[in-house]
Every structure is written in C-alpha cells, then in structure tokens.
Amino acid sequence: MLPDHILVDIMHLLDLRTMIRASTLSTRWKPLPYLLTNLYLHVDDFKPRTGILVMSQLNNLMSLYTETIKRLLAPMGERAIKVLRLRFYMTDPHLKSIGSIVTSVLERRSTKYLEFIIVTELHDVQCNEEDNVRLGQRFIRFFNSYPYTFRCLRSLSIQNMRFNESDVPNLLNACDQLQRLCIESCDSGRRSVLQIDAPRSRLVELAFEFCGYVRIELVRVPKLMVVSYDTWMGGSPPVIFGHVPSLQRIDFGCATMNWQPPFVLSNWLSGTRLE
After folding, report:
1. What pLDDT shows up at residue 236?
2. Nearest Cα residue to 178 out of 157, 153, 200, 195
3. pTM for this structure?
4. What torsion, rounded to 10 degrees, do the Cα atoms 210, 128, 160, 131 define?
5. DSSP code of 261?
6. What gap in Å lies between CA 230 and CA 252, rounded to an integer?
7. Which residues partner with 113 through β-bridges?
8. Cα dist from 51 to 47, 57, 90, 263, whole Å
9. What is the DSSP letter of 187?
10. What is the end-to-end Cα distance of the chain in Å, rounded?
11. DSSP code of residue 50
C-alpha cells in the first residue's frame, strides 16, 4: 500500500463529491487511486513536506516515485489507464524502471494520451557545457532504449541538454504520435542551427525557452498550429518559417537589450500566412 501522504496527494485528482464520500469511509478510500484512469504523477509531490530537496535526497525521491508508479500502474482487473502524464527527474538508475513500467502499460493498448515532462537535477544556470552534453547523451540513451514508448508519446518537455545535429530530427521522426514538443535551454553547440523537416509529423505545437540556437528553420511541419519562443539572445527572432500551412498563432517574448538591433516585423514574417 502507498504511504498516506502520497495517497492524500493522489486523492486531489478525484472530484469533490468522490472525496467527500471517500472521507466518510476512511478504511475503504485507500484503494481508490488504483481505480483512476487519468493519472498525472508529478515528482515534486513526492518531496518531503518540510525542507528543501538537496542532491543527496534525489535518489531516495526517485526511488519512491518509481516504486509508486509501479504499484499505481500495475494491471488490475478491467482497469484501463487512458491518460498518463509523468513528470520526473532524469536520473540514470531510474530511467530504466520508468521506461519498463510505461512500456508495460502501453502494451495493454488502452492508453490514449502519454506525456513526459523530463526535468534535470541541475537548473539551467547551474549547467556548464559538459553538463549539457552529459544530460543530452543520457536522454538519447533513454530514447533509444524505449522506441515503442516514445512512438506513443503525445507531449514531451525536455530541458538543459546539448544534442548532436541529428538528434532532434531523429526524435521527431521516431515519435510519430507527438503533438507537442517543449524545449528549454537546449542547443546543439555554439552558434548551432536546428532544422525541422517533418512532413509526416503530427506536431501541432512547438515551444522554445532560453534555447541557444541561432536559427530554427521550420522547413516542413504541415500540421503545426502554434509556435512560441520566450527569450532569445540575438537580433531578430531566430525562427524561420517554411511550409507551415496550418500555422495560426505565434507567441514570442523577449526583453530587448540595448545592444540588440531592432527588426522589422513584416520582413520577419514575409511569406508566412496566418489564419
């Protein structure tokens, strides 16, 4: 059985009437989390209630997290897990467990929506180039080890990684169900260019935040509807639009520095048609 404080947090996923009924039957409400079909398991909910998480506690935190999702996602009667959203730290000893657990869930063929929000033990300001390379390689190993799981992903968020030039295109080609991709503080080296040419992709939304790419070329992304980019370090916004016929919204934000030259919006968006 799960620890009581974890059960209480999971119960927040239930509607109010269910919680009221459950509170009157305290000896019977503990099994309820095992009946949920829509699950969002956030690693921060497993942190100690007091104090700040330190690096030495990270392994214990992720051990508790992986043990919990193993129990919660175990087969149980006719139960179908339709929506599964996982936010977790990308710690090496636990990625294998998470990949294996999620793969076993997907093999039941009942999950309609899968999301990974992958965070790193270091914040972006703490990462040097070696850290970014190491984290990028760790993620790519995880990706290569569980191709079926990544093929079923609908949404993916990653951060603080340095990739090889072909890594992101390979990811998009392999994740053929992916609809949303959020990339934070990533690049492929200094002055690198990210080229996205995914004519068969189902990608609907792309979000970038504090990324180090000098240019992002959206060559062919036919179903893309939303592009957002928060803060870039350069002159004009780094995104170049190619064949994006479904594009409906652009959300860009940057606190312009006095050394950044102004740009003409009409020139930047020339050739881009917005509905």
Report:
1. 74
2. 153
3. 0.86
4. 170
5. P
6. 6
7. 83
8. 9, 11, 22, 46
9. B
10. 52
11. S
Q: Percent of the chain beyond pLDDT 90? A: 61
Instruction: Please report where in the chains the tokens 């050394």 appear, as a residue.
Output: 259
CB 212 within 8 A of CB 187: yes
What residue type is assigned to position 202 of the chain? R
175, 134 contact by CB (below 8 A):
no
Q: Looking at residue 226, what is its pLDDT?
A: 96
pLDDT single digits (tens) 3-28? 544 444 444 444 434 444 444 445 56
Residue type, 136: G
Contact 81, 110 (CB under 8 A): yes
Give Cα separations from 211 to 14, 94, 133 (angstroms): 37, 27, 14
Q: Which among 96, 101, 87 is positioned nearest to 44, based on CA atoms?
A: 87
10 Å Cβ neighbour count for 191?
10
Residue 211 identity: C
- Are the beta carbons of 169 and 197 closer than 8 angstroms? yes
